[in-house]
Amino acid sequence: MLNYLFWFVPFGSLVGLVFAFIFFKQMMRESEGDEKMARIASHVRKGAMAYLKQQYKVVIIVFIILSAIFAFLAFGLNVQNRWVPFSFLTGGFFSGLAGFFGMKTATYASSRTAQAARKSLNSGLKVAFRSGAVMGLVVVGLGLLDISLWFIILNHFYPAAQGDGHNLIIITTTMLTFGMGASTQALFARVGGGIFTKAADVGADLVGKVEAGIPEDDPRNPATIADNVGDNVGDVAGMGADLYESYCGSILATTALGAALFLGDTVLQFKAIIAPMLIAAIGIVLSVIGIFAVRTREDATQKDLLSALAKGVNLSSVFIAILSWISLKLLDFPNMWGVWGAIITGLIVGILIGKVTEYFTSHSFKPTQNIAQKSSTGPATVIIAGLGTGMVSTALPVLFIVIGTILAYLFAAGFRFANMSGGLYGIGIAAVGMLSTLGITLATDAYGPIADNAGGNAEMSGLPKEVRKRTDALDALGNTTAATGKGFAIGSAALTALALLASYVEELKIGLIRIGKTVMEFADGSTVQTATASLQDFMTYYTVNLMNPKVLVGTFLGSCLAFLFCGLAMNAVGRAASSMVDEVRRQFREIKGIMKGEAEPDYARCVAISTKGAQAAMMLPSLLAIIVPVVTGLIFGVAGVMGLLVGGTATGFVLAVFMANSGGAWDNAKKYIEEGHMGGKGSEAHKAAVIGDTVGDPFKDTAGPSLNILIKLMSMVSIVVAGLTVAFSLM
Which among 1, 268, 409, 458 is least surrounded, fewest beta carbons within 10 Å? Predict the structure, then answer.
């Protein structure tokens, strides 16, 4: 029975990939519009592919170097499983592949969405959303397929049915390491893509809107193609790679915790391992159903459009709640109601964080409208109001994560705090529950840049005002769904990071056994077998408590790293944006006839500037996330690493929510004014709001969303080099 249920996991992944292909083909059958629309889309597509090709060249070099280091650790020093270099490479490959497919779809979908919007608002929504669904389904389909394949391969070499369950420990902890490959690729994609898109966006806005007084996406603006390219490389390829690693990380961490929870009983171990995979597979099928439920009417308001997307997400969520209970029933899972309660907790927390993000970033609600009203007194008050709104917006998500973590722990632990292993499994499976319907929630996110590019195409192609009005409505909705998606990603990252923290301890156990430390000796003279030691035993053995200065030092380092990482990313955007501003001003000054529409700007030059700026600047912040956990482990040992991960997770989560919500609110405050409020486009209030939006761009699209990858990558790196830490730590 259990073996049969496992095969539903790869089946679910294939369902997702098949429907992604169907939606892609449906989109490609739509009309691309007239010759001018097709030419503009082609410029964007070529620029996006050129950037991605250049980024992958850099990432491949980094992966080759890291794989060689892991091979030395595994085959030379014998402090690592010998599958690690290979699983690391596959994680990065599939993460990059998910981003590539999503971006390829998005670049073909923008002009088709604009053309569909000529017919009706619903037609435009359908094309954009189904195209975004390709991204969502490719991410979950490839993620679950990768997990399934690795489980089958490792089970062949370490048969789960043999022994006392240690083979399943080896399988699940080895599978965790391909999550580092996914995280590394995701961070490069997020940081590099974020720098590219915001350098172009800032340059286009400051010179085009504020100085020259021309509309957004005006074809006379030299940076407008680079801006549209950036939407794809940052918000589609970057977000796809980001959530791919969140999705895989939550499942893998939970399987490792499940194997540890029931060590000694291989039947229960297998149930605990297959449960998160099965829930994820069911979620893919339900996401497809939810995608078909999204539609709207022609006279829809912003709230109607939000409701249309929410209908699909909520439908999938309700069914996953029901079917996850049935899955646990079929598995005859111990403490079935408690584990189901943890899953539902994760689902509810994800929905609540999304709703809070929507409230603070949508211009249908007071916080964003208040920021727009501050524009009447200039950009300074807009910036102050946005910062304040972002800070206030962190309270509820943190509260929801706190309550959700405690409830998930207690449900799965049978309301016994002492049952730490069971409680941590509950936190892990809560993260799986939150991400179970990622197929459709990511579709609502990827929809945003497609709608944004559709609006740009409509503006540059000179389509009628009613078409631009429809694409503006879709674009404003996309800003909110993108902000909601970022909040969702950050929330899932917090729960996943907590589960990974517990998984780190399991990797320590294997690391100690590998170097011959089969018995752990405590300060009081007592001993325990390393293979059977509990989480509490490891905390005692490594003195992981607040009175240990190594833990405190690690906590400070983790908190500092979150700010240092953001600062490097923000400064990188500033440098690249300065170059872009200079170039746009130069073209306006030197290329005669641009402002009259008699000469075409040099779009390719602006794309090249953003590409060069992103490639040069993404290395340092990305490599910091890899280097700092290794160095901390070698100097301060396990206690220092635990402090680092706690500090980085807590600070990174709050900072990420603040930055994402501030940026989203500034962006939609500008959109609110552009709809005709406070004087409308071209007014002094609008110029002030554009400056606020410009400040918010690197907040919400570069530094903020990269933080959730940072906190998980630090955990993944710590897990992968755990053997090195226990073997060579100085303290």
Answer: 1
